[in-house]
Amino acid sequence: SHIRHAWDPAKSVAQNLAEMGLAEDPNKAVPIPKKKMLGMEVESDGREQGGKIIRKPYVVNEMEYEASLPEKKSNTLSRDLIDYVRYMIQNHGENYKEMALDEKNYYQDTPKQIKRKINVYKNFYPEEYKDFIASLKQEKMDVQ
């Protein structure tokens, strides 16, 4: 978005990027130094980047600031997986072998795979899991 706002449609791509201090060709912006061959030194292209004037440095500054912000973690589980795990726990408790034989086990997960999915649910939503288990215990007490 920063580049879009600073873009001048009357200029070429190379001119726009040069004004913002960005490189059109990354290979030319950061040339790879050539290796020494048999004691002789081979020169690089000889192009210098120092001669360009940056007229819109705020674009690079804004992009650097945005890149330095911490990334938000948006790890969530799908609603289907949450419903699947809750159904299995509600009907089978901690019996993973029974869960594997359940008709709702569409993907034919093994007991270990089901246990792993339940543990993932526990780690992602610990408070929700505790409330769910507490509600199951309350239902059992009400039935008895």
TrEMBL record:
Recorded GO CC terms: nucleolus
InterPro entries per record: Ribosome_biogenesis_Nop16
GO-annotated biological processes: ribosomal large subunit biogenesis
Pfam families per the UniProt record, alphabetical: Nop16
Keyword set, alphabetical order: Nucleus
UniProt key word Nucleus: yes
Protein's cellular compartments: Nucleus, Nucleolus
Recorded family membership: Belongs to the NOP16 family.
PANTHER family registered for this protein in UniProt: HSPC111 PROTEIN-RELATED, NUCLEOLAR PROTEIN 16
Protein name: Nucleolar protein 16
Organism (species): Calypte anna (Anna's hummingbird)
Lineage of producing organism: Eukaryota, Metazoa, Chordata, Craniata, Vertebrata
